[in-house]
Amino acid sequence: MNYHQYYPVDVVNGPGTRVTLFVSGCEHQCRGCYNQSTWDPRSGHPFDGAMADRIIADLNDSRIPRRGLSLSGGDPLFPGNLDAIKALLLRVKEECPGKDVWLWTGYRLDELSPAQQALLPLIDVLVDGKFVQEQADPSLRFRGSANQVIHLLKESQQAQK
Ligand code: SF4
Fold first, then answer.
1. Nearest to residue 42, comparing CAs of 8, 80, 12, 2?
2. Which superkingdom (predicted)?
3. What whole-number distance in Å separates Cα of residue 24 and Cα of residue 76?
4. How far is the CA of 98 from the centre of ligand 1 (A)?
5. Residues forming a β-bridge with 128
6. pTM, full prediction
7. DSSP letters spanning the chain
8. From atom 7 of ligand 1, which residue's Cα is the shortest distance away?
């Protein structure tokens, strides 16, 4: 997996103060996509162990408490990204207790492949669906168009709604 951007402190992509990774690779080709440069999975920089270590360290940095990790792109559920995303999320669950995971994908929850579904237990909130320009609405929180849905996959997130 490759990535384009990493924000160690982010207050825009999800609730609270977070760390955010924008990965490479997306096959949805939404009209009006704000991030076309990420479509090619070979674009950006290799996501390696050092980058994963940095994310874990930032999530656990008590000087700037982070609520969790946001994964966007590109598409973190692009088939070629699944192994690397799974490995990262397993580390977050193991090494960063109490941190939540928000993930943005162009696939709808009801059309995920079995391999994509296998990641759902590691995700707290899934924001799904392609960006649809005709339904774009800048007033929406954490999503670009009205067709996209914020799925609270864990009871803990329902309580914080
Ligand atoms: S899913 Fe996101 S990154 Fe992919 S084409 Fe659509 S808007 Fe762009």
1. 2
2. Bacteria
3. 8
4. 29
5. 149
6. 0.96
7. -EEEEEEEEESSSSSSSEEEEEES------TT-TTGGG-STTSSEE--HHHHHHHHHHHT-TTS---EEEEESS-TTSGGGHHHHHHHHHHHHHHSTT-EEEEE-SS-GGG--HHHHTTGGG-SEEEES---GGGB-TTSSS-SBTT-EEEE-SHHHHHT-
8. 33
Of residues 38, 9, 47, the one with CA closest to residue 104: 38
Q: Is the pLDDT of residue 157 over 70?
A: no
Quick one: how far is CA 104 from the chain centroid? 5
Ligand 1 atom with minimal separation from the 28 CA: 5
Cβ atoms of residues 18 and 28 within 8 Å: no
> Best mutation site among 22, 26, 71, 149 for ligand 1, i.e. most ligand atoms within 8 A of its Cβ?
26
pLDDT tens digit string along 4-62? Answer: 999 999 999 999 999 999 999 999 999 999 899 999 999 999 999 999 999 999 999 99
Atom 1 (ligand 1) nearest CA: 106
